Every structure is written in structure tokens, then in C-alpha cells.
Amino acid sequence: MVGVKQKEIRIGMVGYQFMGKAHSHAYRDLPFFFDPKVKPVLKAIAGRNEEAVKEAAETMGWESYETD
Questions:
Q1: pTM for this one?
Q2: CA-CA distance, 36 to 62, in Å (whole number)?
Q3: Structural domains of the chain, with CATH
Q4: Among 4, 8, 31, 55, which one is least packed by beta carbons within 10 Å?
Q5: Mind listing the pLDDT tens digit for each residue in 7-41?
Q6: Exposed, middle or buried: residue 45 (CB in 10 Å: 0-12, 13-18, 19+)?
Q7: C-alpha to C-alpha distance for 15 and 44, rounded to whole angstroms
Q8: Rounded alpha-carbon distances, angstroms, from residue 60 to 1, 5, 11, 24
């Protein structure tokens, strides 16, 4: 329906390397393949290496990152 705000589901993910990239891509492309009832929002991604997880968050479209 036009003008109706779609409900959101906020996503948090642990890991940012290969599978993190794959899942981030899948969440972003979900509406292209399906008609989801909720909109996925990439809230936070977590990893041990702050520099690497920060770069991953910026590259893959996450709102924030965590290290613990």
C-alpha cells in the first residue's frame, strides 16, 4: 500500500569476513527476490578486530559495529 510504512526488523550479526559479506548482501537484496513483510535494517555487526570490523561495517552498509 502506498504511504504505509513497512515494519522493520533490526539485524545484528557476529562476523564480518566471508559469511558476513554473504549474509549482508542477502539482507540488502531480499526485497529484489521476495516480497518481505518486514524491512531488514542492518543495525550492528561485531568482530574482534576493531579496524577490520569498522571497515566492514562501512563497506557493507551496517549502521554501527561492536568489538565485544
A1: 0.83
A2: 20
A3: 7-66 (3.40.50.720)
A4: 4
A5: 999 999 999 999 999 999 999 999 899 988 999 99
A6: buried
A7: 11
A8: 29, 24, 13, 6
